[in-house]
Amino acid sequence: MERGHSKGPQHRTVTAIADALSLDEAAREELIELARDGRLRDHWTRPSGLCELPGSIDDFTGRTAELAWMGDLLHADASPGVAGVELITGPAGLGKTTLAVRAAHGLRPSFPDGTFFLDLFGMSPQPLAVEEALARLLRALGAAEQQIPQDVPGRASLYRSMLRDRRVLVVLDNAAAEEQIRPLLPGGGASGALVTSRRLLAGLEGVRRLSLGPLPLPDATELLTGILGERGGPALTELAQLCGGLPLALRIIGNRLVSRPEWDPAELAARMTNEERRLSQLKAGDLEIATAFEMSYAQLADAARRIFRRLALIPGHDFDAALAAVVGGTSIEDAWDALDELVDLGLLQDSTSGRYRFHDLVRLFARDRLHAEETAADRDTLTKTTTSWLVRMATSAGRWFEPDHRPDADPSSQEEADRWLRANVDNWLGALRMAARSGRHSVVLDCAESMHWFSDRWMHAPHWHEVFTLGAEAAAALGDPARQASQLNLLAWVHLLPKDDPETALRYTAQAMDLATRSGSTEQIALAHYNAGGALRRLGRLEEATAAGTQAAEMYKANGDIDMYCQCLGAVGSCLRDAGRYAEALEQYLDLWALLNDDQSGVTPSIAAFIRPIALARVGECVGSLGHRAEAINKLTEAIGLMEQAQLPAPQARSLETLAALLADEGRAGESRQAYARAAEVYEAIGDAEASSRCRDLA
């Protein structure tokens, strides 16, 4: 005590003094008790060396927003009786522990009574027991061994009482479950806790949650640069992309390169581009990305493991529970349960739209497990089952948009079919590729043909060239020239609208015309004339375009195809408008408008609903060109509203731009600016950056 090493005397010293002073029994007991209290106070306030916070790494990078969010723990005492508890969750390899330790070091000055760290071994087969965790924390806080109760409730009560009047920060790392964490949380006051876990721990109440994601590419590249210094160059950005922003993967790659100065980062990046070898490259000493994923995988029930590894067979970037049930060979209810378990452990990411996705490296791990635990025959069967289901669903969904469609059971409506095709495009297109490679020509052609009318609704999607090319190749393999001509005509359409390449479109129409003539398909001959007219109009060959459109119209009318006859009337009107013959064009469009609104015309209602807003916009354009701007503005405004309802973004963008110009001519600058800005948004949505930029400048 004289040397300043202690504030309380040892028990044997006190008893020796009591004996030397010949104290009576009451005074002796009082002295010994007071000395004991002082000794415990001394033990609680001096550093114990237990549960010491690990050091923070020097090259810590990024997470600025997350650290600022965690810094709010300083204000945890703003609500009396409520402890500040923050929970950091996320998949393996995201650096949850590193972040928590970094934050704790930053917060340390604000917690003068101690900052402690405890690994709960949540991914171990035997996580740290609650009673042992409490015992370790109590010892770290200064409790004498004989003062620690034997039961969990007693230990938890003592733990909370020791924290109540102190300002202590406890980092509880790698938590296994809610029941392991609850007794370890402060009961209130100025103390706080940071908890990390791969699980969501959704049952914990009263905690602030941070769901950690991968590092953005600039931060990931900066981390590699921090590890490697000047060495690396542009290859570091590619390596950061291949690591998917996972700090553990980035650390492994950085350490591998640092320990092998002769290695070229560009060569390592080239090796990692091979997906078959990528995981094997992510290993440095005792650090291995696959081991981190394996620990989570080992926590899963057998059914969830099976679905997890089989999900690697899905060709697209994301999927829903229905597709997971197909690939997992289970019911939709069991698929939901398995997906919830996978999300809870961070092996899948979910979204508010009910779709799920892998991190790229987790997908590769799932594929490795699939190859290790399923036979080649089983994998082939699963692949065929998944591919068949996807192509069948896509074909069924596409048929919903045909004029003479008879509803199928699944999807149950045109709206549902539209949503499914758009959300699952990567999956059904990937399945279509696989079906083509395996020589299943009939199903490929059926699927491509089913997309004819749906492609009009989503005309600027980038997939149609591949879809109709696969369809044309399948028709050629089947020796069916009429159906091949149909697919070539669709390819001509692709090069007219989404690609705007009229020369290529003309080459396709010529091939289609030849095949259709040889097979006697008047329908495809007429369609070739129609598409050729569109290409010729874009090339400025307006007389030829008008002749081709007129010939197509006559053929369709003779065949009784009123739907396509309407399309041809509109095409001829466009030729007349482009030639500056606005009165004649207006007459053509008004004839079309009357036909679309005649219940006895025979036009399919869905086709009429599709063409009507476009025809009304063309009427508005012609009226405006003839000098009647106010009437044109009214018609274009009405047409744009109909296009919004019918989800026709390409004609809507053009009509908005035309409307904006008319409004400007009328001196209505504010409304014109709004129309140009909206046109820019719609053009951007369909991928027309040039038109979007033009409209933003005009706005």
Question: How does this model look, in words?
Answer:
With 699 residues, the chain is mainly α. It contains 34 helices and 10 strands. Among the domains are: 11-45; 64-211, Rossmann fold (3-Layer(aba) Sandwich), CATH 3.40.50.300; 217-285; 293-374, Orthogonal Bundle (Arc Repressor Mutant, subunit A), CATH 1.10.10.10. A 5-stranded parallel β-sheet has the order 2-3-4-1-5, sandwiched between helices. Helix 28 (562-578) packs parallel to helix 30 (605-625) and helix 31 (629-646) packs antiparallel against helix 32 (649-665). The protein is elongated, with a radius of gyration of 36 Å. Residues 42-48 have low confidence and may be disordered.
Which key features would you list for this structure?
elongated; 34 helices; single chain; mainly alpha; Rossmann fold; about 65% helix; five-stranded parallel sheet; about 700 residues
Kindly summarize this structure in a few lines.
With 699 residues, the chain is mainly alpha-helical.
Question: Which SSEs are present, and which pair or pack?
Answer:
Blueprint: H1 11-20, H2 25-45, H3 64-71, E1 84-89, H4 96-107, E2 115-119, H5 130-141, H6 152-164, E3 169-173, H7 178-181, E4 192-197, E5 208-211, H8 217-228, H9 235-242, H10 247-259, H11 265-272, H12 275-281, E6 283-284, E7 287-288, H13 289-297, H14 302-310, E8 318-319, H15 321-328, H16 332-344, E9 349-350, E10 356-357, H17 360-373, H18 376-399, H19 414-423, H20 425-437, H21 441-450, H22 452-457, H23 464-478, H24 481-496, H25 502-519, H26 522-538, H27 542-559, H28 562-578, H29 582-596, H30 605-625, H31 629-646, H32 649-665, H33 669-685, H34 689-698
Parallel strand pairs: 1-4, 1-5, 2-3, 3-4
Antiparallel strand pairs: 6-7, 8-10, 9-10
